[in-house]
Amino acid sequence: MKSLFTFLFLGFFSQAVFAVPRNISIDELAKQVKEANYSVLEEAERLYQARENVSMARAGLLPKLNLWKIASAALGSSIEPTSLIELVPDIAPFLVPANWFRAKQGEILYFAEKEGYRALWANEVSHAKTLFYQIRFDEDLLSVTQKAHLRLQDLERIVKARELTGHLPSGSTKVIQIKRLALEADLKSLGLLIFDEKNALKAFMGLATEEDVVLTPLERPDYSSIGAINPQELVLRVIDVAPENRQYEHFLKVLPLIKKEIQFSFLGASDISRGVAGGIFDDIPTPSGLGFGQSASMAILKSKEKMMGLQKKGIIETLKRNLFSSTARYNSMLDLASNIETRMQLSNELWKNLKRKLTIGEEVEFQEISEAAEVILGVDIAVMSHELEFRKNSERISRLLFENDYNKESPEYDVIGGNGDKP
Amino acid sequence: MNRFLLILVVFALSSCRESAKYQEWYENTKILKQELENKTSLDIHSPDDFLLLKKYFSQVKDLSVELSLNDTLRENIAQYLMPSSVEKFCSELLVNDSLYDEIDKKCRKNGHYICSQDVEGYIRFLNGIVEKLDVKTKEAWKLSESCPSNLEE
Fold it and tell me: Which of B13, B114, B119 should be substituted to probe chain A, the one whose Cβ sees the most A Cβ atoms within 10 Å?
């Protein structure tokens, strides 16, 4: 009975704990995505498989105790010398050169897989952070719209009084009322949008859908202390550090080994897998034994090399395009910072002035009231959009340069300091 | 007896191959270092200089990575890098503290690191090499004037 009570109490308590919203800051978000994002974890598993595959490939170089095969050859009615050659891949697989080349390929492809992991991890962090900024923008927009709604309620009251006293044409209140109702519908839609976006963010963070999250507000960037970026200064670094490009560098390192594998295929083909990243080379046929397919395999290999070279060039151009586009937008947002600041000041003055006029009962045109309400809301949204655009592009640049939250080093660095702790 | 001879031949061959690989690495690194030192003014933004820096520092990285991955090289490093040869190794192959500091300073601009990641990781690569040396060679490294001293403790 006592244990049942404890169980029920704990059940209730855990529900209560679950209901407490979780505060998430932008710094915690990056950490959480790195540790719990489903795609990142899945890719980490793939990486683990690639690592194990390298061990498997090395093990494949050791003799296999295929006793049944050996015994059947030894006990055969007539032992022919050629039947012993067939046993070489089992008894001494290290004597088959193709196996060595395959094992080496597996090692290089492990680094390629690791670069793939680095790219995916960075993309997930980048998407999650951009979504965080978007949600914060939408939440701010919600708050601004709520304020605008209150302003319209105020106006509606004042306009109604003035309409009754004949200071404003009849029907003025209805126009304000329509605008207020439209804003109420916008508030509902925004609420739903934020709800969906938060769910998407929870998925990025590997959190349960039921969990409630509260995003910590962001500090406004101090534009005066930030300098413009010259993309020409960064382009070489971006190409150098990009995992997408590095992955192709590893792929291109594998091609000479496949070439050797084909050249030595007359001594037997390898059945060792190239690993999870090796699928990209599965379309290159490797002849086995003394066949006539070697020249065709070589031609396919050459074509593959050409194709990969073109793909690498394409990746470099995409990286450059992204860098130039992001820095252009980033610099443009910096240029616009003072413009935005002035608009914000003017809008505040406009509202104060209008409110003062209305409070003291000064003559104000209805058109003026209606336009002012729209201008103020427009400026508020422009300020937030400017900030969002700046943050998004700043994030893209950090992702391209692999700095700040993306500061994950090249996979080769991981092995430094190890003692034969091979991939 | 025959088997023993065969094993001996295999080991000797693999050792020779390793030695040849090391020699090749040594010569390439030496050339790149000289090229780097002969540059009167290093322009980080020029593709040629960026590539030169990347090539040189990648060479240092390669030795560090190979020492961790390659058992044979790790076992044989004592033959290539002895207390008596440390001075020559450092003066011929490694950029000194002041040149590296100068390069590193140029690579940092407006809060961004604009050179290759391999330039950034130099100290780490050196640590990776030094920790694979025997005690006497490590001591010789510390006492040498040509060897970089800005290693992590």
Answer: B114
* Size of the A and B interface in Cβ pairs below 8 Å: 67
- Continuous H helices in chain B: 2-38, 47-69, 71-80, 86-93, 97-107, 117-120, 122-130, 135-143
Q: Does B127 touch chain A (CB under 8 A)?
A: yes
A215 has which bridge partners? A24
pLDDT at residue B79, as a whole number: 83
DSSP state of A219: P
pTM, 2 dp: 0.78
- Go through chain A and tell me how many residues it has: 423
Residue A195 vs residue A294, higher pLDDT:
A195
Interface ipTM above 0.85 = no
B43's CB contacts (< 8 A; 6+ apart) are: B49
What are the tokens at B106?
């140029």
How confident is the model over A265-278, as a mean pLDDT? 69
Does the pLDDT at position B7 exceed 60? no
CB of B58 within 8 Å of any CB in chain A?
A: no
- HSE (side-chain half, CA atoms, 13 Å) at A133: 22
Residue, of B115 and A94, whose pLDDT is higher: B115
- Collect all residues with Cβ–Cβ distance below 8 Å to A166 and sequence separation of at least 6: none
